[in-house]
Amino acid sequence: DIQMTQSPSSLSASVGDRVTITCQASQDISNYLNWYQQKPGKAPKLLIYDASNLETGVPSRFSGSGSGTDFTFTISSLQPEDIATYYCQQYDNLPYSFGQGTKLEIK
Amino acid sequence: EVQLVESGGGLVQPGGSLRLSCAASGFTFSSYWMSWVRQAPGKGLEWVANIKQDGSEKYYVDSVKGRFTISRDNAKNSLYLQMNSLRAEDTAVYYCARGEWELSCWGQGTLVTVSS
Q1: I need a labelling partner for B56 at 20 to 30 A (CA). Which of A15, A99, A104, B77 fits?
Q2: What gap in Å lies between CA A78 and CA A90, rounded to an integer?
Q3: CA distance A62 to chain B (A)
Q4: Chain A CB within 8 Å of residue B62 CB
Q5: DSSP assignment, residue A39?
């Protein structure tokens, strides 16, 4: 099975900050990677698919990049409503595994 | 409006069974792969199973193979997860989601608690 490792596990930043989360796959997954946002008590929401494509309706301050084993998720200017846990997910091989999550808090 | 509504969760004893349902509306259900994803209390997301549009292909995470069965009824716009031989480690919120790997729409989840 492919292991997905996110870092950091938690992050505290100020409104307006640029925030970056990384996700590393245990083997080459090309660009078969999604990013999800999960707010407390809510279901996850797809933000980025195919590593770098923004889902319809998602604000442009969210972006993704990378291929192979190393991926990056960026919020260009943190907003209060971005407080959530973010997950990467690979879909190169079954089972479609998720990273352990990055909990983002406002400083 | 695209909507997925799960039901069927609850408290069950170890070794017991439960059947989860997911009612879909607002989109052409028969055109999409569908998936189940679970989240243990305070933990991360775990992909559980998915099923092709016509039900001809089904895939499972190893930890539920032989115990869980995913199915669908396109006439009723419904997705199901039959869970047998339940274990404490199956305790989680179970989400149904639209898609094979790009999970573009999720239900609100239903809590399954396995405990004596």
Answers
A1: A99
A2: 25
A3: 16
A4: yes
A5: -
